[in-house]
Amino acid sequence: MPPPLSLPTPRPSTNSTSLMPPPTTTKAPTSLTPKAKKRVKVALTPGHSMMDWGALKSSGKDLRGVDSLMRVTPSILKQHNKRDDAWSSFNGKVYNITPYIEFHPGGEKELLRVAGRDGTKLFAATHAWVNVDFMLDACLVGFMVSEPAS
Asked: HEC profile for the chain?
């Protein structure tokens, strides 16, 4: 029976023609090393998982809170900045985020940071992999427009 195959043990190169840089053993000082912000998730109450959110979205229950799609100005958006009445805009679309607050994995406090304002930049920085239009489609209130000229 032939002996089992094995890979040769790599040896450190002593010639200067190697294309690999020499190994380093020093680390950058910790004060210069950027610290990644740790994502914090909160414990959601039973019945408030993403699966439960999906079921609520497809239940037919009114999550918009408006009769028809609206044109929303920044001043109108700013009025909806409370826990029980929270709207936010993402990519020019305005959503009633009030029903989603209890389902948000980052917690109520984090979601309310964008209540009454444009949350596009913060959303992109923290949720680049999430499709906001799909996540909040049942909560669409309308579209952002500029203030009327006076």
From this structure: CCCCCCCCCCCCCCCCCCCCCCCCCCCCCCCCCCCCCCCCCCCCCCCCCHHHHHHHHCCCCCCCCCCCCEEECHHHHHHCEECCEEEEEECCEEEECHHHHHHCCCCHHHHHHHCCEECHHHHHHHCCCCCHHHHCHHHEEEEECCCCCC
Which residues on adjacent β-strands are paired with residue 37? none
> What is 63-144's CATH number, 3.40.47.10, 3.30.1330.10, 3.30.70.60, 3.10.120.10?
3.10.120.10
- Which pair of structure tokens corresponds to residue 52? 């439960």
pLDDT band at 1 (very low <50, low <70, confident <90, very high): low
The pTM for the full model equals 0.72
Closest alpha carbon to 103 in 31, 42, 13 = 42
